[in-house]
Amino acid sequence: MALATIEQQTNGTVDLVGVSESAQTNDTKRTLMTDTIGSCVALSLFDPVARVGGLLHFMLPSAGERQEPMEQAMYADTGVPMLLNRLQSMGATEQNLVACAAGGAEMLNDDQSLGSANRSSLAQVLQLHNIQLAAEDTGGNSCRTLSLSIETGETTVRNNGKERVIWQA
User: Fold this and answer.
1) pLDDT per residue over 2-34, tens digit each?
2) Helix 76-89 and helix 114-128, axial crossing angle in degrees, nearest 10
3) Is the pTM of this model over 0.85?
4) Which domains occur in the chain, in start order?
């Protein structure tokens, strides 16, 4: 499946997930997509048995002391559990979830290593829930786009103008 075109987005077949946002659905006619994934990380979760999926585009590794509900999707340590809870309320189970990630690039020429911190935080949170990444396109220094088809579970990444399927059933 190709990433969503402008026509598909206008026709309502694609839900665009912004930075510090998440979305989940059991509508098999939907595709979830997020773009401009630089040092941020996008995580897709798909349960092929329950036919539900979700997408999180988090910006920072940890919320620290901040726990406001409106900000949960901004952080790996609060956004991932939030998405898991929402998917479970739709019938997903952790043992069935297929997890894919994109992003975590080092976009700035400084010592902050935000992309690396985001990747590490994601790995820690997924480990707490006994979820392993089935596929990823992370690191480097380029922006990416990730899409998840709820109909098939196919997860696609566009990186440096090249599109590829990173997971399919």
Assistant:
1) 454 434 444 448 999 999 999 999 999 999 999
2) 40
3) yes
4) 6-164 (3.30.1330.200)
